[in-house]
Amino acid sequence: MARILVVDDERALLKLLETYLARRGHEVTCCDRAQKGLDVLDTDQAGFDLAVLDHWLPDMSGLDLLFGVLQRRPRLPVLVSSGSFLDIGQIPIPPGHRVSFLQKPYLPKMLGNAVEDLLKSEA
Q1: Count of other CB atoms within 10 angstroms of residue 96
Q2: Among 2, 5, 59, 109, which one is most buried in terms of CB atoms within 10 A?
Q3: Looking at the predicted structure, is the pLDDT value of residue 84 above 80?
Q4: Measured between alpha carbons, how far is 16 from 105 in angstroms, rounded to an integer?
Protein backbone atom coordinates (compact mmCIF):
# COMPACT_ATOMS: atom_id res chain seq x y z
CA MET A 1 0.00 0.00 0.00
CA ALA A 2 1.21 3.48 -0.86
CA ARG A 3 0.13 6.91 0.31
CA ILE A 4 -0.81 8.92 -2.77
CA LEU A 5 -1.56 12.63 -3.09
CA VAL A 6 -3.86 13.43 -6.02
CA VAL A 7 -4.40 17.02 -7.21
CA ASP A 8 -6.98 17.64 -9.93
CA ASP A 9 -9.62 20.35 -10.31
CA GLU A 10 -12.12 18.07 -12.08
CA ARG A 11 -14.08 16.86 -9.07
CA ALA A 12 -15.73 13.92 -10.85
CA LEU A 13 -12.35 12.69 -12.06
CA LEU A 14 -10.85 13.28 -8.63
CA LYS A 15 -13.50 11.02 -7.07
CA LEU A 16 -12.90 8.34 -9.70
CA LEU A 17 -9.14 8.47 -9.10
CA GLU A 18 -9.65 8.23 -5.35
CA THR A 19 -12.00 5.25 -5.71
CA TYR A 20 -9.80 3.41 -8.20
CA LEU A 21 -6.55 3.89 -6.29
CA ALA A 22 -8.19 2.99 -2.97
CA ARG A 23 -9.52 -0.23 -4.51
CA ARG A 24 -5.95 -1.06 -5.47
CA GLY A 25 -5.06 -0.79 -1.79
CA HIS A 26 -3.61 2.71 -1.66
CA GLU A 27 -4.36 5.44 0.87
CA VAL A 28 -5.41 8.47 -1.16
CA THR A 29 -5.54 12.15 -0.23
CA CYS A 30 -7.32 14.33 -2.78
CA CYS A 31 -7.11 18.07 -3.38
CA ASP A 32 -9.04 20.08 -5.96
CA ARG A 33 -6.60 23.00 -6.04
CA ALA A 34 -2.84 23.21 -6.43
CA GLN A 35 -2.32 25.31 -3.31
CA LYS A 36 -4.30 22.81 -1.23
CA GLY A 37 -1.97 20.08 -2.44
CA LEU A 38 1.09 22.08 -1.46
CA ASP A 39 -0.47 22.89 1.92
CA VAL A 40 -1.04 19.17 2.52
CA LEU A 41 2.62 18.47 1.73
CA ASP A 42 3.68 21.26 4.09
CA THR A 43 1.69 19.84 7.01
CA ASP A 44 1.87 16.09 6.37
CA GLN A 45 4.00 14.20 8.86
CA ALA A 46 3.62 10.63 7.58
CA GLY A 47 4.93 11.29 4.07
CA PHE A 48 3.56 10.38 0.68
CA ASP A 49 4.91 7.72 -1.66
CA LEU A 50 3.63 9.32 -4.88
CA ALA A 51 1.88 12.43 -6.19
CA VAL A 52 -0.52 12.45 -9.15
CA LEU A 53 -0.88 16.00 -10.48
CA ASP A 54 -3.10 17.55 -13.11
CA HIS A 55 -1.14 19.86 -15.39
CA TRP A 56 -3.90 22.44 -15.90
CA LEU A 57 -5.24 23.93 -12.68
CA PRO A 58 -7.13 27.21 -12.13
CA ASP A 59 -5.04 28.52 -9.24
CA MET A 60 -1.50 27.66 -10.37
CA SER A 61 0.26 26.37 -13.46
CA GLY A 62 0.98 22.68 -13.50
CA LEU A 63 4.70 23.37 -13.78
CA ASP A 64 4.64 25.63 -10.74
CA LEU A 65 2.82 22.90 -8.83
CA LEU A 66 5.29 20.27 -10.05
CA PHE A 67 8.30 22.33 -8.98
CA GLY A 68 6.61 23.19 -5.67
CA VAL A 69 6.14 19.48 -4.99
CA LEU A 70 9.72 18.63 -5.99
CA GLN A 71 11.07 21.44 -3.81
CA ARG A 72 9.14 20.19 -0.79
CA ARG A 73 9.68 16.46 -1.41
CA PRO A 74 12.70 15.92 -3.71
CA ARG A 75 12.49 12.13 -3.54
CA LEU A 76 8.73 11.93 -4.16
CA PRO A 77 7.84 10.37 -7.51
CA VAL A 78 5.34 12.44 -9.48
CA LEU A 79 2.90 11.45 -12.21
CA VAL A 80 1.72 14.46 -14.23
CA SER A 81 -1.50 14.09 -16.17
CA SER A 82 -3.00 16.33 -18.83
CA GLY A 83 -5.40 16.40 -21.73
CA SER A 84 -2.72 18.31 -23.62
CA PHE A 85 0.52 16.65 -24.62
CA LEU A 86 3.42 17.45 -22.34
CA ASP A 87 6.96 16.41 -23.16
CA ILE A 88 8.47 15.71 -19.74
CA GLY A 89 11.89 15.54 -21.40
CA GLN A 90 11.61 19.24 -22.29
CA ILE A 91 11.00 20.34 -18.70
CA PRO A 92 14.17 21.25 -16.79
CA ILE A 93 13.71 18.68 -14.03
CA PRO A 94 16.83 18.34 -11.89
CA PRO A 95 18.55 14.93 -12.02
CA GLY A 96 17.36 12.37 -9.52
CA HIS A 97 13.69 13.36 -9.63
CA ARG A 98 11.22 10.73 -10.83
CA VAL A 99 8.59 12.43 -12.97
CA SER A 100 6.40 10.70 -15.53
CA PHE A 101 3.53 11.80 -17.79
CA LEU A 102 0.15 10.19 -18.50
CA GLN A 103 -1.99 11.60 -21.31
CA LYS A 104 -5.71 12.12 -20.60
CA PRO A 105 -8.04 10.47 -21.28
CA TYR A 106 -6.62 7.23 -19.97
CA LEU A 107 -8.01 3.89 -18.92
CA PRO A 108 -7.88 2.90 -15.25
CA LYS A 109 -5.41 0.15 -16.09
CA MET A 110 -3.08 2.73 -17.68
CA LEU A 111 -3.19 4.79 -14.48
CA GLY A 112 -2.56 1.69 -12.37
CA ASN A 113 0.44 0.71 -14.50
CA ALA A 114 1.90 4.23 -14.39
CA VAL A 115 1.48 4.40 -10.61
CA GLU A 116 3.06 0.98 -10.07
CA ASP A 117 5.97 1.78 -12.41
CA LEU A 118 6.77 4.97 -10.50
CA LEU A 119 6.44 3.27 -7.13
CA LYS A 120 8.87 0.56 -8.22
CA SER A 121 11.41 2.91 -9.83
CA GLU A 122 14.40 4.21 -7.94
CA ALA A 123 15.75 7.73 -7.94
Answers
A1: 9
A2: 5
A3: no
A4: 13
